Amino acid sequence: METTPHDLTATSTSSSPSTSAPTQILTTTPQKTSTVSTSSQTTAPVTDYLHYINESKTWIDALVHCEKHDSHLVHITNETVWAGVKKLVSNTTFPSKGVWVGLERNILNCSGPWRWSKGPNVNNATAHWSPDFHLNPQFHFCGKLAKGEDVDEISWLDESCFQELPFICQD
Q1: Vertex 166: Cα angle to 135 and 40 (nearest 5)
Q2: Which of 12, 24, 98, 115 is 20 to 30 Å from 33 by CA-CA measure?
Q3: Domain region containing 148
C-alpha cells in the first residue's frame, strides 16, 4: 500500500495563525467580472472552477482547506486546465516560493511516480516539470508551481510538504 502526503491528512495540524480579515473573491468568466466579499477564505481572480487561495499553508493543510470547500488541490491533467491555471496565476502577484497544486508522491519510495491527490498518476507526456526538477527527491513529496528565470515561465517543481505556500483549489 502506498503512503502519500494525502494519506497523512488525519494527523495534520495547522501551524498558521487563522485570520479573520475580510477577503475578496473575484470571479472571471469570458463575459464578465464580478466581485464578492467574504471572510471565509482568501481568493484572488478565478477561472470559474479554479480558486487561488492567497493564504500560506502546508500542502496537507491546503488539501484539507480545499476539501472543506467541496473542492481539491488542482489537478493539471490536460492543456485546458494548464491554460486556466496559467491565466489564474497571471492575474496574481506570484509568490517567490511558489503555489501548491495537487501533486504528490509516495513518501516511502523516492523514485515512485508522481500522482494527483486522490487521482491518477501524472502523464509525463503532458507534464510541465521545471528543468530543476527533482530538487530534493529524498524529502520533497509534494508539488508546486514555480516561476523560472523568465517571468512568464511557470512550471512544476517538487517541494517539502511542510513549506507554507498559497494554493489553488479546483471545483
Answers
A1: 160
A2: 98
A3: 5-12+50-170
Q: What is the pLDDT along the chain (171 residues), one digit of tens a residue?
A: 455 665 554 333 334 444 444 333 333 333 333 333 333 454 444 468 999 999 999 999 999 999 999 999 999 999 999 999 999 988 888 888 999 999 998 887 777 888 999 888 888 767 887 877 665 667 789 999 998 776 678 899 999 999 999 999 999
Measuring CA to CA, how many Å separate 22 from each of 25, 36, 43, 59, 137? 10, 11, 11, 23, 39
Structural contact between residues 126 and 134, judged by C-beta atoms closer than 8 angstroms: no
Length of the chain counted residue by residue = 171
Residue 49 sits at the vertex; the CA angle it makes with 15 and 125, to the nearest 5 degrees, is 90
